[in-house]
From TrEMBL:
Residues passing through the membrane, by range: none
GO molecular function (one): enzyme inhibitor activity
InterPro entries: Invertase/methylesterase_inhib, Pectinesterase_inhib_dom, PME_Inhibitor
PANTHER family per record: PECTINESTERASE INHIBITOR-LIKE (PTHR31080), PLANT INVERTASE_PECTIN METHYLESTERASE INHIBITOR SUPERFAMILY PROTEIN (PTHR31080:SF64)
Keywords: Signal
Signal peptide: 1-34
Organism field: Eleusine coracana subsp. coracana
Protein name: Pectinesterase inhibitor domain-containing protein
Residues in Pectinesterase inhibitor domain copies: 43-211
Superkingdom to which the source organism belongs: Eukaryota
CDD domains: PMEI-like_3
Length: 218
């Protein structure tokens, strides 16, 4: 059996070498992937900062959208869609808080103002969702590849026009809600948090609209 030992040792060494090479290859791929991810994140971050500078609240825009950088990367349309989704999420949360507050407020000047406000916020949330869906349609390239350039541009303009119209209407609704609460005066003291929530939601919707306005026509 002794003459077979060198062959066994050689085979073992070869096996170890193969395993080490495989591990090294995996590690190299991971490092390359991490480097690629870092580069992509840096590119997305720079793109976001540049686009947010065109909004009325650059810091809020950047801070709220950076966690979603992997979704939009450097796409104007995807960035605007993500911004609309973030705005819609804030409106949904605001509406949920309003409904809870309505249960406590009952029939009063504050209650009436809050009820009207909830109705307009609900409508605003629907409008923002419509805008997001329109932008998603543009991003998924719903326009047929067989259409000529002019047809595609018309379809893109139409989609962007819809998104802008709905976001503008949502901002109007948010303003109506805020005005209603202020008109209720001191009686609306219990809903001061709602007033602040409306203001914040309006900021996010305004950001989404600014980013839609910044989408270049192809």
């Amino acid at each position: 059996m002794a003459p077979h030992q060198p062959r066994a040792v050689s085979f073992h060494r070869h096996l170890v070498m193969v395993v080490l090479l495989a591990v090294a290859a995996v590690a190299t791929r991971r490092v390359a992937s991490a480097a690629s991810t870092d580069a992509s994140m840096t590119s997305s971050s720079s793109f976001l900062r540049e686009r947010c500078a065109t909004t009325l609240d650059a810091d809020l825009c950047y801070d709220s959208l950076l966690p979603h950088a992997a979704e939009f990367q450097t796409s104007h349309v995807r960035l605007a869609r993500v911004a609309a989704d973030v705005a819609a999420a804030h409106l949904r949360a605001l509406l949920a808080n309003m409904k809870e507050e309505l249960l406590k407020t009952g029939t009063s000047a504050a209650g009436d103002a809050l009820h009207d406000c909830a109705s307009t916020v609900s409508a605003a949330a629907n409008l923002v969702r419509q805008s997001s869906a329109e932008l998603a349609g543009l991003d998924s390239n719903n326009v047929s590849e067989e259409d000529d350039g002019s047809s595609r541009r018309r379809a893109i303009r139409w989609g962007l026009s819809n998104a802008k119209t709905w976001l503008s209407a949502a901002i109007t609704n948010e303003g109506t809600c805020a005005d209603g609460i202020k008109e209720a005066g001191a009686a609306a003291g219990k809903v001061v948090d709602v007033d602040a929530g409306v203001a914040e939601s309006r900021q996010h919707t305004s950001i989404a609209l600014a980013l839609v306005n910044g989408i270049p026509l192809q």
